[in-house]
């Protein structure tokens, strides 16, 4: 009954103050996906094509893939990351990029559920995952935003796969600049030593899936993975909603 009342109220409000899609400016016709119309929501681009088995970086062609030992890119062969594998669901572009920006910077907490469900529907997870862990925010940024966007994604994946999650073990122990403002080398320095574990013993011999919203340079995921591996994690898979190439 309450949900019907809410939908009816939203319908009346939308007829008086119609909501426009923040990406294409058409009318938003689905209350479950705020700020985006159903057409833009269905236009998210999935990542396809040959990719490095370690970091997920796309190869230029099938021919390049054939000449890559164990399907590992040159960067990972020279500088292996601390995570065992990284993959993302969609490209950080177009309407998915807009949805993530609205989610993080508006900020619009209500987008966490539909984005998390979309991620869970298209994610590829190993059968023997022990725990899901979100990339944490520093306490002051968490207070300012009001929620950790990665934790809301984790919660939807947890519900879909019934995998345990930990929200308070991995910590961001010092403030860092927003990675979006920095170059690749600056990103590595920015997050160096920024993370720690409250209960390192709980990570030993665990297969961990580390969840974040966007993978760009991989610096944040790599530093978090270093901390988890140092505590004895058997495997760390870095999984994100989107990836920028």
Defining traits:
Rossmann fold, two-stranded antiparallel sheet, alpha/beta, four-stranded parallel β-sheet, globular, 245 residues
Range of strand content: 5-15%
CATH class placement of the largest domain: Alpha Beta
Q: What number of structural domains do the residues give?
A: 2
Mean pLDDT value: 90
Number of helical regions: 10
End-to-end Cα distance: 46 Å
What is the CATH third-level topology name of the largest domain?
A: Rossmann fold
Q: How do the SSEs run, as a string of H and E? A: HHHHEHHEHHEHEEHE
- Main beta-sheet strand count, sense and barrel state: 4 strands, parallel
* CA radius of gyration: 19 Å
Helix content: 25-40%
Map the helices and strands.
Blueprint lengths: L1 H15 L21 H4 L20 H5 L7 H5 L6 E7 L2 H12 L6 H11 L8 E4 L4 H7 L3 H13 L8 E3 L11 H8 L3 E3 L9 E9 L3 H12 L4 E9 L2
Parallel strand pairs: 1-6, 2-5, 5-6
Antiparallel strand pairs: 3-4
Walk me through what this model shows.
The chain has 245 residues and is α/β, with parallel strands linked by helices. It folds into two domains: 1-43, no CATH class; 51-243, Rossmann fold (3-Layer(aba) Sandwich). It has ten helices and six strands; from the N terminus they run H-H-H-H-E-H-H-E-H-H-E-H-E-E-H-E. The chain has helices spanning 2-16, 38-41, 62-66, 74-78, 94-105, 112-122, 139-145, 149-161, 184-191, 219-230, and strands spanning 85-91, 131-134, 170-172, 195-197, 207-215, 235-243. The strands form two sheets. Strands 1-6-5-2 form a four-stranded parallel β-sheet, sandwiched between helices. Helix 6 crosses helix 8. The radius of gyration is 19 Å and the shape is globular.
């Amino acid at each position: 009954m309450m949900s019907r009342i809410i939908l009816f109220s939203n319908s009346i409000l939308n007829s008086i103050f119609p909501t426009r899609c923040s990406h294409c400016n058409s009318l938003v016709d689905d209350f479950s996906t705020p700020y985006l119309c159903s057409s833009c929501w269905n236009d998210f681009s999935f990542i396809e094509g040959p990719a490095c088995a370690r970091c997920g970086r796309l190869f230029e062609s099938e021919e390049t893939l054939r000449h890559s030992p164990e399907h590992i890119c040159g960067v990972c062969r020279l500088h292996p990351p601390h995570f065992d594998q990284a993959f993302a669901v969609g490209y950080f572009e177009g309407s998915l990029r807009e949805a993530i920006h609205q989610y993080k910077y508006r900020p619009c907490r209500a987008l966490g559920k539909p984005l998390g469900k979309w991620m869970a529907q298209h994610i590829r997870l190993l059968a023997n995952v022990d725990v899901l862990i979100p990339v944490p925010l520093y306490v002051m940024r968490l207070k300012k935003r009001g929620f950790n966007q990665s934790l809301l994604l984790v919660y939807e994946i947890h519900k879909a796969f019934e995998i345990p999650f930990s929200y308070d073990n991995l910590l961001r122990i010092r403030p860092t600049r927003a990675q979006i403002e920095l170059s690749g080398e600056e990103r590595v320095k920015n997050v160096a030593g920024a993370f720690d574990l409250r209960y390192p013993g709980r990570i030993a011999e665990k297969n961990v899936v580390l969840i974040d919203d966007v993978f760009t340079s991989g610096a944040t995921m790599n530093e978090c993975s270093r901390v988890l591996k140092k505590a004895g994690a058997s495997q760390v898979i870095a999984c994100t909603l989107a990836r920028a190439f």
